[in-house]
Amino acid sequence: xxxxxxxxxxxxxxxxxxxxxxxxxxxxxxxxxxxxxxxxxxxxxxxxxxxxxxxxxxxxxxxxxxxxxxxxxxxxxxxxxxxxxxxxxxxxxxxxxxxxxxxxxxxxxxxxxxxxxxxxxxxxxxxxxxxxxxxxxxxxxxxxxxxxxxxxxxxxxxxxxxxxxxxxxxxxxxxxxxxxxxxxxxxxxxxxxxxxxxxxxxxxxxxxxxxxxxxxxxxxxxxxxxxxxx
Length: 230
Description:
Blueprint: H1 2-10, H2 19-24, H3 26-60, H4 65-77, H5 80-91, H6 96-120, H7 124-132, H8 137-167, H9 179-188, H10 193-221
C-alpha cells in the first residue's frame, strides 16, 4: 500500500488534474454525483420530518427536552463506521437503505437542536398575543411559532445538509457512497490522483451549492428576519 502511494506521488503521468479522466469517465462521475445528491436529499428530508416534531415535543414538554437532546446527541457521537456496521446486518449489507438510515440518525441532532432553539426564541409577548386572539396550542404552533422559528430550522437544515454531504462518502464501504466511491476507488487504483481529486472537489462543490440554495430559500421564506431597524 505504501509503495503504491509513494509511486503515485512520484509518477509524472499521474497528475492531480486530468481533463482526459473526466471525459473518459463522464457517465461514471455523473452517476456517482446523482447518487450522492439523492442520498443527501433523502436523508435531510427524512431527518427534518422526524426532527421538527421531536423539537416541538421537547418545546411543549420541558421534561423531555433533556432526554431528546441526549438521545440524538448519543447517536451523533457514534463513529460512522461503527454505526454503518451496526445497521447493515439488519437492513442488508448491500442495501443503500443502510447508508440512508445512518445518515438520518446523524442529521437528527443538528435539526432538533436548532429547531428547538428557534422555537424557544419566540417572544413571550407574541405567544400571549396569540393566546389573546383565541389560538389553541396547534393553531399557535402552525401560524405563529413555527414561522417565527423558521430561521433556526433552516440553520439546522443547512448544517445537516453540509454534514450529510461529507458523511455520504462513508457509504462507499458497501458500494453506495456516491462521490466517495470515486475517492476510495482512486486510493485502491494505485493512488489515482485525478480520480481522488475529482470526487473531492465535486463533494465540496455540492456542499457549497446546497448550502447556498438553502440559505437563499431561508431568506425568501423569512423576509422579516433580514429587515434592519431604522
